[in-house]
């Protein structure tokens, strides 16, 4: 997270630095990104950069966390629209994520992120809803889910269901970029996989 000195900056200066970071992280993946390019574009000294962020990774994950907040808010809104249906909400959210990630302003940034996915990246893009400091937000979201149409025993199983579907969601977003899928191909693959989860995979023998 940024240091408090960053949050003390006027909003226009915060936005300038974030926009410069977005430009650099869209140009190349995190490991190739240059702080020199970011501060040059933002018009700040290197010393000022380190007053705001620990390093380029700190800035990168803060940028993604800001963008993931948008996805989270859309997910909650979709839950309300779909009367708490978890599967319909994930499908709607996936369609919105495709559209959002295809936006020229964000496409290269997300492409670089998803093609270099790791655990920390996935947690950040998932908005860290499983972290302790996000517990209230997670509980608010869970309260909107209609559990009456889910074959689960308790909230712990619901938690695991959400984690499973979230993992499938990120896998499909990665595949969209890796295989250069069209929006229609990506959505079709995602719907097939969610339908398999929804139906269940184990076929019981007739008694």
TrEMBL record:
Q: Which UniProt keywords apply?
A: DNA-binding, Repressor
Question: Cross-referenced Gene3D superfamilies, in alphabetical order?
Answer: Tetracycline Repressor, domain 2
Q: Where is the HTH tetR-type domain?
A: 11-71
Give the annotated DNA-binding region, as residue ranges: 34-53
Q: What Pfam families would the database entry show? A: TetR_C_19 (PF17924), TetR_N (PF00440)
Gene source species? Neobacillus rhizophilus
Q: Do you know which PROSITE patterns this protein is assigned to?
A: HTH_TETR_2
- Protein name per UniProt: TetR family transcriptional regulator
**An MF annotation (GO) of this entry:** DNA binding
